[in-house]
Write a structure and sequence with these properties.
The protein is an alpha+beta fold. The protein is 17% helix and 50% strand. The chain starts with a helix and ends with a strand.
């Protein structure tokens, strides 16, 4: 009887572990872009090497990227961005870790408006943030789209007064991340 209980417990644990594993969605080539609009100059950049994971069993989401992965149309802008503003040698990563508020069955195909609440870390500063977006599911793959604003001052990103008119105080950030179910 005791042996049967141990075998049943072991099999139940393995089943739960397997179910939890099957509820992970992973992305390795997500896209995050940003746009700064001012009367003097627009600045935009895109990164196509964003990593992310969604655990649909717990509604947790994590996103991580290298700051140097942003590509600008102008190499001088890219250099100033990394060296002077984001200090990417000192703060090489940006991340978001949070939880999707809505209860959504991602295995069921559909389009779902979602809100993720958590912490964004940029330039070595962590701040609470809420991000609204949309998840489109085909049952085994997901696409997450979101748009939100980042206030540079909130993350202690200093803009010299000489170029202040060329860089917006609030930056528009967009994400487009494709997930596949992790097996």
């Amino acid at each position: 009887m005791k042996r049967l209980f141990i075998v049943t417990l072991l099999m139940s644990t393995m089943a739960v572990f397997h179910t939890a594993q099957a509820q992970l969605y992973q992305a390795q080539n997500g896209e995050i872009s940003f746009f700064s609009k001012t009367p003097l100059e627009n600045i935009e950049a895109v990164s196509k090497t964003v990593n992310s994971i969604i655990n649909s069993a717990t509604n947790e989401i994590a996103v991580q990227m290298r700051i140097t992965s942003f590509v600008f149309p102008n190499k001088l802008m890219q250099e100033h961005f990394n060296e002077n503003y984001l200090e990417s040698e000192k703060y090489p990563m940006a991340s978001f870790k949070g939880k999707i508020k809505e209860t959504v069955d991602l295995k069921k195909p559909g389009t779902y408006p979602v809100t993720a609440s958590g912490t964004a870390t940029i330039h070595g500063v962590s701040k609470p943030i809420e991000i609204k977006g949309t998840i489109v599911s085909d049952g085994s793959q997901l696409q997450l789209n979101s748009q939100f604003d980042i206030r540079l001052q909130d993350y202690q990103i200093d803009i010299p007064k000489i170029v202040f008119a060329k860089i917006a105080e609030v930056i528009e950030v967009k994400s487009k991340i494709q997930f596949v179910q992790k097996k």
